[in-house]
Amino acid sequence: MPAMTSLRPFTAVVFDMDGTLLDTELVFKQIVWDVTRDLGFEMTTEVHGRMVGSSHEVTNRLLVEAYGVSFPYELFDAECRRLMRARMQEAVPVKPGVTEFLAEHDLRPQSLTLGSNGAIKEAVRLGLGVSIQSRVAVEHELETGSLAEVTLRGGLPRRQWYALHSATVPPRPAVEQFLEFANGPAGKKAFEGRDAA
User: Is residue 160 part of a domain?
Assistant: First the structure.
């Protein structure tokens, strides 16, 4: 049996949604508009707005509905990912207040790791934690029962966010701790300040 690797204990784990800590939405918006133009199509504010927070499946369907079956979604997706990876190697703007928030809570991450909606949903499905994502991003998983909605007494940000946990794996201690935090005064305060970041 191979030896288990021991990870040093973490003080905290910060989960970031697109555009919460890092201004990734602004970066990706420009990429989407540029790639769509380069493929010979014209992105619109309405189509882009419907794409924000959507899964790849939903985005594919939206773009085919908007531009017809000739829209090369696989090429569009691959080029957007390539450009986003390249941009993430550069400096990505941090949202106002993030540095102060992390310092106030004595969180000094050596690096931030970005994950896609898909990776985050998969981690939640496996029971590794909870997530707050847009309804559009999790419609399929809620319909199929692979994820389940969590109701938080303190409420959620004003967008259509849903706290999720695995529908098949019992909550781990970290999940229970998060729910205790989210349902307590500190969680309520954090959610009240959500629009400032």
Answer: yes
Q: Note every long-range contact of 79-88, with CB atoms under 8 Å and residues 24 or more positions apart, other chains counting.
A: 79/35, 79/38, 79/39, 80/28, 80/31, 80/32, 80/35, 83/31, 83/34, 83/35, 84/27, 84/28, 84/31, 87/27, 87/31, 88/114
Range of the domain at 163: 115-192
Question: Tens digits of per-residue pLDDT, 61-86?
Answer: 999 999 999 999 999 999 998 898 78
What is the model's pTM?
0.50
Kindly state whether residues 119 and 83 are assigned to the same domain.
no
Is residue 165 packed enough to be buried (19+ CB in 10 Å), middle (13-18) or exposed (0-12)?
buried
